[in-house]
Amino acid sequence: MTHSIYIALVHHPVVNKRGDIVTTSVTNFDLHDLSRNSSTYGVKGCFIVTPSQAQQDMVAYIRNYWREGKGADYNPDRKEAFEALYISGSLEESCLTIKKAHDKAPKLIATSAKSYDKVTLFRELREEISNTEDPYLIVFGTGWGLAETIINSADAVLEPIKGPVAYNHLPVRSAVAIVLDRLLGQ
Amino acid sequence: MTHSIYIALVHHPVVNKRGDIVTTSVTNFDLHDLSRNSSTYGVKGCFIVTPSQAQQDMVAYIRNYWREGKGADYNPDRKEAFEALYISGSLEESCLTIKKAHDKAPKLIATSAKSYDKVTLFRELREEISNTEDPYLIVFGTGWGLAETIINSADAVLEPIKGPVAYNHLPVRSAVAIVLDRLLGQ
């Protein structure tokens, strides 16, 4: 396995129900689920992106509990999962961290429940990443999804996940699991 | 779409870290995530299985909040998702409910992170359910997984989900999302 896939969970800028740009709160379950998803699929790092210092401190506190505190003794598998968790003030900062590690900026892949003109199909991206060690950052939005500024600045937007019916309101935790499975599952 | 797929999230009998048979607590996030996964993939019903009356009451309280309470006004999509949520005292009770609706007992499909001798492959089950309206109940365990009694009494055990690396400690919420996507996704 040679891929260099990273994921980011963005809490700002995202939209709320009315389409306003907001900052959402970090959800503890997201930290656990995304860390475990990342470890299962060999993702190099999972960035929790929030500009709020208080929220960043909370994520660091939880991460340390599982990496070095009582949680690490109680559940070594969880300790391993949390090793992949990074904290970032912005998506730009996440990209810089990846660029430093790989000497190359990551290709930014946005995700959305909506379909856009220039979507990349899952099978296209799966094929592309299987043939390169170049870094990729797959970006997921909390709330009602990523702000248009992120969608517009991305190198590609992934096609939406579709089930056999019209309903499409997956939790972001599920979307991350399904996207990683479609791109990296065996 | 003609399939009649149901899922069950079992809180008893499941095993803990040491392999003891235990009853786990219901997790609020599971109710939301599994309801939304079910609605996305056209699952006919999602059974929350626990023998504890207090836990059943709590699930009913949460379900009613989103189906008929303030939650239903605030988020109609969540209301729709929670329509698929059922509460059961046991897996036998879930099977009876399905049998009453279809005049036929469901085929019981167990899931596990471990591999068993007689596993059914995802592509085999996907093919099978695409050709029938017969009911199926796909069973997921909380804690450290389903008790052996359930595995042994199931009609089939699904192959474990594998990523490209050795780590395999997915949250049950992620496992449900990935299994439904592999069986019913487009």
Summed up, what is this model?
Two copies of one chain form a homodimer. Chain A has a single domain (4-184), classed as Alpha/beta knot (3-Layer(aba) Sandwich).
Structure description:
The structure is a homodimer of 186-residue chains. Chain A is an alpha/beta fold. The first copy, chain A, has helices at 28-40, 53-67, 70-74, 76-82, 91-102, 122-130, 148-153, 172-184, and strands at 4-10, 14-15, 21-22, 45-49, 85-88, 107-110, 119-120, 135-141, 156-158. In chain A, the strands form two sheets. Chain A has a seven-stranded parallel sheet with strand order 5-4-1-8-6-9-7, sandwiched between helices. In chain A, helix 1 runs parallel beside helix 8. The radius of gyration of chain A is 16 Å and the shape is globular. Chain A starts with a strand and ends with a helix. The mean pLDDT of chain A is 95.
Radius of gyration of chain A: 16 Å
DSSP summary: helix tally of chain A: 8
Overall body shape of chain A: globular
Contiguous low-pLDDT stretches of chain A (5 residues minimum) are none
Q: Biggest interface, and residues per chain?
A: A-B, 36 and 36 residues
Please estimate the helix content of chain A: 40-55%
